[in-house]
Amino acid sequence: LSDPARFKPTSTSPLDLISLKSCDANSFSSIEMEVIPFPSPEDDDPGCVLFGFKSHPLHHVKQNLSEDIIIEYLINTSASPLTKNLVHVPEPFCSALSYHRYNFPTTVVQLKLQETDPR
């Protein structure tokens, strides 16, 4: 990042609060990893799984709408394969699936598996 001032947040969204000043190529040479067990031995609460991906630019309306239709099919219809295989099974992995699109200049799609079984 030659000019960190270019990356100042333009809004107060959670994604904008990430500090980009410390992201240079040399800072990744000594990454320390730590395994954090889930669930912890004293925790019986169900968790959730979130995952997301960068999508099309906001002004690509047809692509974003197409993506929304596919995701709706995958999780919110009576024939949705993800819901059938993760929720409506004898030992469900989670209780519900949902998604949200964050409308930034490059959109972000987040899928959420709610109340996952800590196996």
Briefly, what is this?
The chain is an alpha+beta fold.
Keywords:
119 residues; alpha+beta; 2 helices; disordered N terminus
Describe this structure in words.
The chain has 119 residues and is an alpha+beta fold. The protein contains two helices and three strands, in the order βααββ. The chain has a three-stranded antiparallel beta sheet with strand order 1-3-2.
Please outline the helices and strands.
Blueprint: E1 47-57, H1 61-76, H2 81-86, E2 96-102, E3 106-116
Antiparallel strand pairs: 1-3, 2-3
| First-to-last CA distance | 42 Å
Shape: flat
Helix fraction, binned, reads 10-25%
User: What are the segments in which pLDDT stays under 50 over at least 5 consecutive residues?
Assistant: 3-23
Q: Total helix count? A: 2
* pLDDT averaged residue by residue: 75
Q: Return the string of H and E elements.
A: EHHEE
Strand content: 15-25%
Number of strands: 3
Biggest sheet overview: 3 strands, antiparallel
Rg (CA only): 19 Å
Helix-strand makeup class: alpha+beta
